[in-house]
Amino acid sequence: MKSILIYLGLFSISAFASAQKSVVMTKTMKSEILGTEKEYTIYLPHDYDNSDKKYPVLYLLHGAWGNSHSWVEKGNIEEITNKSTGASEALAMIIVMPDARGIDEDFGGKNMGYFNVPDWRYEDYFFEELIPYIDENYRTIANKNNRAVAGLSMGGGGAIAYAQRHPSFFSSAVSLSGCVGYCSSENARKIDIDFDKSLGETDPTLFVQNITDEQTAELKTIKWYVDCGDDDYLYDGNIALYKAMREKGIPLEYRMKDGGHTWSYWQDSLPAVLLFCSINFLRN
Questions:
Q1: From the UniProt record, which GO molecular function terms apply (predicted)?
Q2: Strand ranges (DSSP E) for the chain?
């Protein structure tokens, strides 16, 4: 760990010294799978425009009824990331914040979420279109070792499920206050039964409980990190996931702090997430 942190320091100081300013912008791409333009917000590190370097990528997922702007407008992602890289606590990286709103986007929209439902194959879009598009249009290090996924709430569950279902894509997966136990809230049922059904079908805890030995070996190639506050209504589901992973012998770092399902909790957690992903980029 000490040698990794020293390397982080040397890397970040060098990048910061030649830096100008980080860039956050919202753009759109055409999705043939979804049949529409899809929005994404992207953070480019300080020296992106002043070098030809390639960077690791973190896909950072928003929660229910959020959008690609949520981590910028409510999560203070740019300032926190700049502070972490400037303090040698994270590598310079590209951060992609996708938009998981569905059709007719009022209140999240019909088919909101990260998984495939009838007539809205969002998971296929993410892996078959979004990731290749980002790798093609930005200077990414386009491999598993330099790609991570993280998210909060619905996005936390999405991050864990994506890494479980597509282990060849990510070196690390992080959930903050994640919906990792089946979320069958009445609110979700009122919005869209397919949304509720998709969460049950992709439940990360049930997935772990039913995996084969081969799948277990694949999940051990990923570093896992779960953080949920002691006052969070999703606390029990997160503990259940932790226990299920331990029973399968899959290492998972679990963090619990005082707090609930709030943006202040997630902002406070974000520096540790960036450090965790950075360390695992370097280990690979």
A1: acyltransferase activity, transferring groups other than amino-acyl groups
A2: 23-31, 36-44, 57-61, 94-98, 116-117, 120-121, 147-152, 172-176, 223-227, 252-255
Q: What is the pTM of this model?
A: 0.89
The dihedrals phi and psi of 91, each to the nearest 5 degrees, come to -75, 155
CA distance 111 to 205: 22
Structural domains of the chain, with CATH: 2-283 (3.40.50.1820)
- What are the pLDDT digits (tens) for 59-102? 999 999 899 999 999 999 999 999 999 999 999 999 999 999 87
Measured over the CA atoms of residue 135, residue 273, residue 17 and residue 9, the dihedral's sign is negative
Residues 11, 53 contacting (CB under 8 angstroms): no
pLDDT (tens digit per residue) in 119-154: 889 999 999 999 999 999 999 999 999 999 999 999
**Hey, CA dihedral for 99, 100, 101, 107, is it positive or negative?**
negative
Q: How far is CA 269 from the centre of its chain?
A: 13
Distance between CA atoms of residues 150 and 59, nearest Å: 6
